[in-house]
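User: I'm putting together a small comparison set for a docking exercise, and I want a reference complex before I start. The sequence is below, and the ligand is S-adenosyl-L-homocysteine. Could you produce the 3D structure with the ligand included, as C-alpha cells?
Assistant: Of course. I'll restate your input first, then give the C-alpha cells for the complex.
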Amino acid sequence: MNENNTRVWLVGAGPGDPGLLTLRAREVIENAEVVVYDRLVGAGVLALMPENAIKIDVGKNSGTHPVPQREIENILIEYARKNLRVVRLKGGDPFVFGRGGEEAEALVNADIDFEIVPGVTSGIAAPAYAGIPVTHRNLASSLHFITAHAKTGELPDINFDALAKLKNSTLLFYMGVETAGLVCEQLIKSGMSKDTPTAVIERGTTSKQREFISSLNNLPSEIIANNIKSPAMILVGEVAGLSENLNWRSKLKLSGVKIAVTRPQKRAGKLSRMLRDLGAEVLELPCIETEILHDVQLPEFSNYNWLAFTSVTGVEALFNLLAESSRDIRELGSIKIAAIGKATADALRDRGLRVDYMPEIYDGENLAQGLAKIMTQAEKLLMLRAKSGSRELNEILDLNNINYEELAVYETKYLKCSVPDDLDMAVFTSASTVKAFIESCGDGFKLDNIKAICIGKQTAREAANAGFTKIYTAARADLNALVQAACEAR
Ligand code: SAH
C-alpha cells in the first residue's frame, strides 16, 4: 500500500512511441487503479494499463467532444477521494500545453497529494525523429514553445515582432495546423525572411509519422497539399534544413510499420526490442498468458528413457513442481533430454541440463519425427507440456509406435486485448497466439490489411485458418528469422 498520501499522478506519456515513456511513468501506469487519458496518448502506452484498472477516455473520440476541463478535474478528485491510485495520462509532457497546471491547482484546492511525472514533449521528439536537432551550435541557440491554438478562430496573443527579431532560434508551434497560414503571414510581415526553413511533422514518433521540409512562404500550401492533420508540430528555423542529412529514421528497415507482439508479456521484451531497433512502432498486445499448474504429481523419472520439452514454460514448470513437492533434480539420473528448439535448450542449459536431442527445424512435427528416428522400441518417452497442446506431435509419435506419456504442467489462457484498426503487422510465436488474437479482434474485424508474421508452419496454418491472407513464415523458428520475415513482409 501507499506509504505516503499521493493519490494522483500527472504523467507525461511522451509523443506516441512507447519507447519514449520514462521508467517512472511505466512504473506508475502499471500500478494504477484508475487511468484517465487523452486522445494523444499512444496505443503502445495505453496497452500498459493494468487489465483491471478503471479506464476513462476524456479525449476527443471522432465526432464527439472531449470531456470539459473542469469535469476532468472532478473525475480525478472523485476517484482520489475513493482512495484509489489515479493516473492522469497526457500526451507529451503534462505541463507543456497540457493543462497539467490547472489540474495540479485543482488537486491542491481539493487537498489531494499528487506527483508530476514529466514526459518527452512532442516539440523536441517529433523533430528528433525527423532528423532535426532543435538547437545547434551554429544555427540555433534558443528554442521557443508557442501555442498556435485558435480559441475562436483567432490566434492567441503572440508577439510576432519579437519572434521575428530573434536570430539563431527555433520556433515550435503546437496546435498550429489550422493556423499555420496566419502564423507564417504574421512572421513574414514582422520581418522574418520568406525563405526561412520550416518543417511540419505529423504524428511524430509513431509509425504514421510524415514530415515535410519547406520555407516560411510555402509551408501553408505544403500543409494543404499534403492534407496534414493534427497532431502536427510546426518548426520554424534554420535547423529544419538539417533534416535531409540527419534523417536517421527513414533509413531503418521497419520504420513506418506498426506491429503487434502477441506473445506473453514476460517473453515479449527481446522481440519487441529487436523490432524497435529496426524502427517499428511496437505494440505489446499479449493475447495469451501461461500459467504453471500446481498439484501435478511428477512421476518416477527412472521409468522413462527420454524427457521432452516443447517450450521454456515446460522447463520452468518442472523446476517449480520439483521445488513444490520437495523433490530434486538428481532424480532425473541418466534420462535423456530433448528440446523443441534453441530457446528451450537454453533454458535447460541455464539450469545445468544439457540437451541430448534438438531437431534442426524447431517445431513439434520435427521434434516428434526426430525422436521417432532415434528412440528404440524398448525406450519410453515423457513429455512435459501444455494442457490441451497441439495433437500433431502425438499423431506422429503414434504413427511411429513410440511408447510415450504426456503430462500437462502448464496451461495457456487467452487474454482480451484491444487491437487497434491501423495495425500493419502482427507477430505470432505459436498457434495459440493466433487463436487468442482473433478472439480479441471480435466479429467483423478486417484482417486483410494485417500481415501475419509466423514463427513456423503450424502457426502459419492457424493464421490461414483464421482468415489472414498475407502470411509470412520465418525460415527458422527463432527470433532473428522472425524479425527477418517481418522485414521481408514490409
Ligand atoms: N503536452 C503535449 C502537447 C499537447 S498540445 C506535449 O508536450 O507534446 C497538442 C499539440 O501537441 C498538437 O496539436 C501538436 O501540435 C503537438 N503534438 C502532440 N503529439 C504530437 C506528435 N506525435 N507529433 C507532432 N505533434 C504532436
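The mean pLDDT is 93. The pocket of S-adenosyl-L-homocysteine is lined by residues 15-16, 40, 90-93, 96-98, 121-122, 126, 174-175, 201, 203-205, 230-233 (CB under 6 Å).
User: Thanks, that's exactly what I needed.
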